[in-house]
Amino acid sequence: MSAIQDEIRIAIHAIWTRRWLALAVAWVVCILGWLFVSQIPSRYESTARIAVQTSQLLPDGMGNGPTAQMQSVDQVRQTLISAVNLQKVVRGTDLAATVSSDADVAARVAGLAQSIKIENQQDTIFKLTVTQGSPKLAQQIAQKLIDIFVESNLAGDRNTTSQSLSFLDRQLDQRQKQLQAAEARRAEYQNQFMGGLPGSGSVADRIGLARSQMAQVDSDLAAAQSSVAAVQGQLAATPRTVAEGGGSMGPARARLATLQGQLADARARGFTDNHPDVIALKNQMAAAQAAAKAEGAGGGAGGQPNPLYLSLQSMAAEKQAQLASLKVRKAQLQGDLDRLNASLSTNPEAAAQQGAIDRDYQVLKDSYDQLLRQREQVALRGQAQNQTDSMRFSVIDPPTYPRAPTAPNRILLLTGVFLAGIGLGVGGAFALSKLRQTFTTAQSLQRTMGMPVIGSIGEVVTRGQASARAKRLKMFLGGTAALGAAYGMVMGIELLQRGMAA
Predict the structure, then answer these.
(1) For residue 495, how far is the Cα from the chain centroid?
(2) What is the dihedral of CA 229, 235, 236, 242, to 10 degrees?
(3) CB neighbour list of residue 58: distance below 8 Å, 6 or more residues apart
């Protein structure tokens, strides 16, 4: 423990004997450091927050929903620090007094772009931060940017709507002219190549339609032929007249006539001989015919006309007419198919040309209809924007007026320079003592030489030397106090400058 104390005493004595060097180093370091810190420009930050409130007035898909509006706001936020907007800031703030040419404006714009930061804190809240060397200038720039932000969004949507309508009108006029030209080519082609052909559309479409109609006619024709055959078979099995018997026929013959009528009606409806109802009617008719024969033969020249026969005869005529009409329709469709196939085989290029013309016309028509729908949507959105406030802006926090610079922290830097000067002065004195080492105590001499020290003789100071040493001590303490006073002065100047800037 005593060895440590001795080392501390030796170090303190070495530094004290070179105290003027330590004081000189401290002064030099502090003066140079304080000058350097004073040359660092101050930076003041002005911050503001803006909220964007949107309201959906039109249905989704009309380009007026919150998503579309927030995309517009985000675009304005991204272009807010564009060169054009920053030029407005330069000419609308105190920076205008510092520029005299376009080159100066360009230089100021480049500097502003680096000192402005826009952050999206939430979906609808933006934070604006402006850093400048003057608190007043930082606040002015932040306020000017807010004004540009609001004006760009309020007027930007209307300008965009107007530009969109103008663009869509030009496109519609162009598409309308192209569509009219396509219609003229289509009409000319129809008159030249397709005027004498049946149907509508391309040759392939007409052939497909004719074949589909032919298949339907064949199906109807087969059903009509089956129906005619059934009615004719029923007609052949029905007597033309019925016997007179007191003005009425026997029960067995009446029953037979009723069953014959039911069978004829079933066959007229398309029932085949294998149908369960037809089989049952035939079985009943067999029993009725046997009963009718037992009543005695009827009919003859003196009988009256059979109503069932007359009904079947009328039905047969109607079925024959339907069959003839279907045959005529089939012949007509076959003729149309032959003409279309002949046109397709003799002039395939004309058929291909028609397909190309129809495709071009349909593409132009679809494009025109789509542009027309888009124009209606844009026009409706523009009316909603002009008549209502679908997007509102509010300044949550106005641009702040900074009272103190955000950087550099001069109080901390000045204090650090002061402490560094003292530390370097003390360190320099101690380092010099190591380069020119002396023995302060007898013990240190004994440890170093390894030989016993018999004794030591103290310094004898005369009264004149003591007086001179006292004067030098006062001068040293004055120099040290002056260094502390200089530190206090620079701190006071810094606080005064902050107050004047605020």
Answers:
(1) 52
(2) 170
(3) 64, 65, 380, 381, 384
| 404-443 confidence digits (pLDDT tens) | 788 888 889 999 999 999 999 999 888 887 776 666 665 6
Count H helices and E strands in the chain, helices first: 14, 6
Q: Determine the 3-state secondary structure of 403 from DSSP.
A: coil
Per-residue pLDDT tens digits for 228-271: 787 777 777 677 776 555 444 566 676 777 777 777 777 767 67
Task: Judge whether 270 and 328 are in contact, CB under 8 Å.
Answer: no
Structural contact between residues 490 and 33, judged by C-beta atoms closer than 8 angstroms: no
Q: What's the token pair of residue 493? A: 């100047």
> From the centroid of its chain, how far is CA 448?
84
Cα torsion angle, 105, 106, 111, 116, sign: positive
Determine the Cα–Cα distance for residues 314 and 159; give it in Å rounded to an integer: 79
Do residues 202 and 358 lie in contact, with contact meaning Cβ atoms separated by under 8 Å? Answer: yes
Q: How many Å separate Cα 335 from the centre of its chain?
A: 58
Could you give the 3-state DSSP secondary structure of residue 304?
strand
Task: Return the biggest CA–CA distance within the chain.
Answer: 190
Q: HEC states along 336-402?
A: HHHHHHHHHHHCHHHHHHHHHHHHHHHHHHHHHHHHHHHHHHHHHHHHHHHHCCCEEEEEEECCCCC
| 92: CB partners within 8 A, 6+ apart | 144
Tokens of 282: 């035939």
- Whole-angstrom Cα distance, residue 125 to residue 437? 69
Whether the pTM exceeds 0.70: the reply is no
Neighbours of 30 (CB within 10 A): 23
Whether the CB-CB separation of 63 and 390 falls below 8 Å is answered with no
- Report in angstroms the alpha-carbon separations of 29 from 410, 419, 480: 16, 10, 14
Query: What is the average pLDDT across 321-346?
Result: 75
Consecutive H or E run containing 454: none
CA distance 202 to 362: 13
Peptide bond into 408 cis (omega under 30): yes
47 pairs with which residues across the strands?
129
Asked if the bond preceding 239 is cis, omega within 30° of 0, the reply is no
